[in-house]
Amino acid sequence: MNIKEMMGRETIRPLLMQARYGIEKESQRVDLAGDLARTDHPAALGNRSFHPYIQTDFAETQLELITPVTDSVEEVLAYLLAIHDVAQRSMPENEMMWPLSMPPALPEKEEDIEIAKLERHEDVLYRRFLAREYGKRKQMVSGIHFNFEFGLELIEALFQQQAELPSLESFKTELYMKVARNFLRYRWLLTYLFGATPLSEEGYFDEEDRPQEPVRSIRTSRFGYVNRPDVKVSYASLDRYSEDLAENVAQGRLSEEKEFYAPIRMRGGKKVADLFHTGIRYVELRNIDLNPFDRVGINAGEIQFIHLFMLYLMWTEEKKPADEWVEEGNRISDAVALEHPMHQTAYLEEGRQLFAEMQQMAEELELDVQEVLDHYRSWLEKPEQTLAAHLFLAEEGQAVLGQKLAKKYYDEAYAKPYQLAGFSEMELSTQSLLFDALQEGLEIDVLDRSDQFVSLKHQDHLEYVKNGNMTSKDTYIAPLLMANKTVTKDVLARAGFRVPNGETFTSLEAARKAYPRFVQHSFVIKPKSTNYGIGITIFKDGPSLEDFVSGLKIAFKEDESIIIEEFMEGTEYRFFVIDHQVKAVLLRIPANVVGDGEKTIKQLVEEKNQDPLRGSNHRSPLELIQLGDLEKLMLKEQGFTIDSVPESGQQVFLRENSNISTGGDSIDITDEVDESYKKIAIEAVAALGANISGIDLIIPDKDKPFSEEGDYGIIEANFNPAMHMHIYPYAGKSRRLTLEVLRLLFPELLN
Amino acid sequence: MNIKEMMGRETIRPLLMQARYGIEKESQRVDLAGDLARTDHPAALGNRSFHPYIQTDFAETQLELITPVTDSVEEVLAYLLAIHDVAQRSMPENEMMWPLSMPPALPEKEEDIEIAKLERHEDVLYRRFLAREYGKRKQMVSGIHFNFEFGLELIEALFQQQAELPSLESFKTELYMKVARNFLRYRWLLTYLFGATPLSEEGYFDEEDRPQEPVRSIRTSRFGYVNRPDVKVSYASLDRYSEDLAENVAQGRLSEEKEFYAPIRMRGGKKVADLFHTGIRYVELRNIDLNPFDRVGINAGEIQFIHLFMLYLMWTEEKKPADEWVEEGNRISDAVALEHPMHQTAYLEEGRQLFAEMQQMAEELELDVQEVLDHYRSWLEKPEQTLAAHLFLAEEGQAVLGQKLAKKYYDEAYAKPYQLAGFSEMELSTQSLLFDALQEGLEIDVLDRSDQFVSLKHQDHLEYVKNGNMTSKDTYIAPLLMANKTVTKDVLARAGFRVPNGETFTSLEAARKAYPRFVQHSFVIKPKSTNYGIGITIFKDGPSLEDFVSGLKIAFKEDESIIIEEFMEGTEYRFFVIDHQVKAVLLRIPANVVGDGEKTIKQLVEEKNQDPLRGSNHRSPLELIQLGDLEKLMLKEQGFTIDSVPESGQQVFLRENSNISTGGDSIDITDEVDESYKKIAIEAVAALGANISGIDLIIPDKDKPFSEEGDYGIIEANFNPAMHMHIYPYAGKSRRLTLEVLRLLFPELLN
């Protein structure tokens, strides 16, 4: 079986860059000064007994962040970023994540290091055993576990190219065993490049058996958290590997299989024995130190290089018998790990050879990897470019640098709290929903980013959500009904609700004839089915026929059908109804500034726009206030220019419409509006057969209970109501509506 | 209270043309020869105990067609037309509706006239009483009962203009009593214009007391079906009216209130006594003969004139005390009814006066009615233009004309059986759904024609339907999921179904790079979310990079995301799944003709296009086959021109794609496809969480049960699957899917 030749075939080459990635990353929680946290695992992070993404490792302070398995580098990093955002924002505000593999200074007394308070007794017992066996201090180190799987299509195509091995399972096992042996032999290169534990802090080593000089990687050296030296396991075959592991357990050198801390693990089943049935499905690389210069401890370049390295390990031939080959690798890796970070490695020549062969492979296989190859080749030549060297060179010392970096990442997590890192190009409501789902421990899957389509899962219960609030809990017809303003009004009126009188027209001519019928009242002309205030004209006192017709034309530009409708006096409020409850009531007021007697309107606008909640293009909960023609005209009508200085306390409006999208303010008044109106909102939404709706009521006096007909009017019901304006209002209390959506979908988890 | 002056006020004038209309129309069922039917009420018309639209009147052969109450002339006629279509197509194929008010020749023996076989015993008993009291023959006459209500807004506005009457109810009663008295006084004008019973047929009169000459209206004359002459009721006030009615019943002159056959009835409650609480809400005009020259017995001009006439009756003052006024009217109406249809009426002068005053009113009130006024004014002057005259003048005699007209309307009802008259501009699926709903006796309400939005009701159970199959029985998310091809495939693949391998791309550059991965197989490039075969390119054998890129560009023109996907070999079938059952399976084949060895392709196409099921722009179940550039190119590739003569039995394809919209044939194969594939379709739709879906499967051999992976592939699932192509296939059995939708919505009625 000539893998090298098989990889070069025309049908295989296009598949080589297919792979699946999954990352587990440990991080110590520290306070803002960089000292180990003394708090329990954050309660906001749901239940550790099933949380798929955020667990604790050995110690109560040691977070374990776990991504789902993905098909691309971008996705795995996106999930890892998102999980970081969630973990950070679920921790007490004075805590952050330590970015280094080596822990910060540890408590003087070992008993002050608290073992993770897990629910399952056997989990706690195992950790107690480890504490006795290895001491607690060594376990406080953190790292990346990198799960790597060649693309299934690639593996299957390779399998088809050969006849030696009869089953796909045996083929996969053979292939990954070769990769594992070569990995063990050549892994020193990763140690060299990505080793990032040059120094330890106070309390990590409690004995003198420790590196006396700065090194590349304490963690992956023999001074790291390793098995006893008498634990030996052969990688010659899966049989041998399995037998040796069993023997070590039988002899008591290991308490169980998982205590074997190999730099690479063969994965696929729950136990090694399962691999005989399933074949090895993927490998877990355990020798990657945290890259402290990246917020999530690893970056795309590293992953791409590791992928290329894995291909090389498949491609290149083993040059010695298995055990000898592995033993040689172990020896070299340890030696490289213990080299001074600023020194040229003793294995420079072999390193150059490896890069040259990777280069040759990339060319033969037409891989698009030149940039990443060149990048890390320069690190090989220049040790000062490695991660370990950067840490060693830190002027302020490693610990202070760790604290500074942690604070930087902490600030990044809080800079735009309405965003979810990794998914920030999605709609805000979907970002909030994903945040809440990650926090509560739902399994998430972003099925289509541009379509805002996600799935959420708890145990066997699967739900799909689009745009944050389109779910299985609403019917197909209810949103269609709400999308049609005529039908909505019709249905509400028949159910006994007060809606503005109005008529629908499909031709300008017919609408023009209605002039005499409307001219005597206040009325509004609007397109039948748009949702964003576009094409709407309000006439408060009998317009001329000419103005009337121009209003009609504006509306007809947006839709084939338009509505002329009674204009109701009062204030418009948005009631967000979900599951027969009003969970938020919002008042929207037009873009405005309040004077201080000193600043100009322009300055006041600039100041108000500093609010981190304001941005543009719906990427923030509030929009920047503009100073365009419309705003200037509006000011002019009030006798202002942008350079006028309003009196202290004087509110100056820059817009007539109250849309958030034109700089309006959102003000939560959920607790202030009279209950009688909430009841109306709930009943109206029920009459529309909807479960989730943002229904707009005109109310003359929200404090006075509803008593007679003129006391309210229903303007419209929205089938995809914005949620972020309630979650991040300009003023008033935040209403976490995305959590309400999750509550509706997963009552078994959240109620 | 000066109504005339009030009507002229600026705030009232725009409201004057508001009104609500409802029509009840009787029609005898006859055979194609025009003889009274001998069959029972059609079983296809559901249950007469609750059917809101199609009932039987006195006799088992006498249909009573009832429209819902509507706000416009167009709507009331649309419903009436639709109900006619449903009634006609639910009758045996050799039956039709008699278009004349006077019945066709009646059986010699009165016992051969069968009383309606109603379920409620008291209904049958009442009819037996009427048969004894008046004889069966007189009851066989048919007519229009026209329910008329002034617009509520108009009535309320008028009420606001006055102070005399304290409540809206008393105001309405006063107003309608005036209108009723004036109606009775001036109704002779309607008798003159719309009287359409000049002659009787064999067996209607069984005694010599009958008109000796042709007249205008037997039905509304004293020879019609009228109460005994000693039944007298005053219209001076509602009190008097109610007292007199009660007295007539008490004295046994009437069996009950409803036996009082007045030309106008005051309506609002179930009984006259209810009117004291509700006020009179509307009036029922009962003196309109069927207009046999219109398919539904009445037309828009008549209704508009009646509306104008009602306004005039409100506007004009009463000139004599009530009883005298009404008595005078009764006398004149009877006299006019019995005038010869070709003669000038004796009341020409009063008629001219009425038209002059209506003209004056129309001008003062700015009513847009000139056309209708002029039209009927000319009938007044020229008696030969009246309906009665037209019947009298029929060369073939009234009975033969009746049979001919009936056959004409019968043919119209069957000409396009896939349409529902009155709603033929709506989508075909909605027309079918409305047809079935009307047939089964569901209350229908077309909420928005252009949006295909209807409501259906049975007793207290209300459902909304859009586009014929969007209902409350599907969730909001399922159709959104099906709309996204990537997500659909993802979900199906995870659930273990076979879907074509594929990838989604959002940039031309990224897609271009995928060339090597796809070039070795058959594959298809398509836009992610369009549904009509647009933008799709199929590559069966490794295209050049250039062709590949041009395929990409075509797809990107339609969507921001495109899919490159494995092309599966086999035939594509559409499975229509509803409520976990496959109710139809369809094979679509490209536009084609089959040669006969004589005709040219052009002639064969013309011949095939004669099929009444073929039309254009989705207004028919099948589309016309085109002979455009694409078709000519396709012919050329096969060595044909449009003038070629294919051999007998030779099938020549004019298109590559099988879409019905480009002239393809739809072939029902529901009973032929192996059950195993139906099971897959059902389970796949369930995996998508959908209730109604048209799911497309590729099957290499539909007769061979599914056994291994290559045996099928799921192409896509459609969330608004066309239904008309299954209901009216080109070949094979019709599958009435709209009835399945109703079954799903109203199991209590239809299962």
Give the gist of this structure.
Chains A, B: Residues 489-746 form the ATP-grasp domain. The first copy, chain A, is of the alpha+beta class and 751 residues long.
Topology readout:
The structure is a homodimer of 751-residue chains.
Chain A: H1 3-7, E1 19-31, E2 54-56, E3 62-66, H2 73-90, E4 95-97, H3 121-134, E5 144-150, H4 152-160, H5 168-186, H6 188-194, H7 238-250, E6 264-267, H8 275-278, E7 282-288, H9 300-315, H10 322-337, H11 348-364, H12 370-381, H13 387-393, H14 398-415, H15 428-440, E8 443-448, E9 453-458, E10 461-466, H16 477-483, H17 485-494, E11 502-505, H18 508-513, H19 515-518, E12 523-527, E13 537-539, H20 545-556, E14 562-566, E15 571-578, E16 581-589, E17 592-594, H21 601-608, E18 614-615, E19 622-623, H22 629-637, E20 651-653, E21 665-668, H23 675-687, E22 692-699, E23 713-718, H24 724-727, H25 737-745, H26 747-750
Parallel strand pairs in A: 18-19
Antiparallel strand pairs in A: 1-3, 1-4, 1-5, 2-3, 5-7, 6-7, 8-9, 9-10, 11-14, 12-13, 12-14, 15-16, 15-22, 16-21, 17-20, 22-23
Helix pairs in contact in A: 2-15, 5-10, 6-10, 9-11, 11-12, 15-25
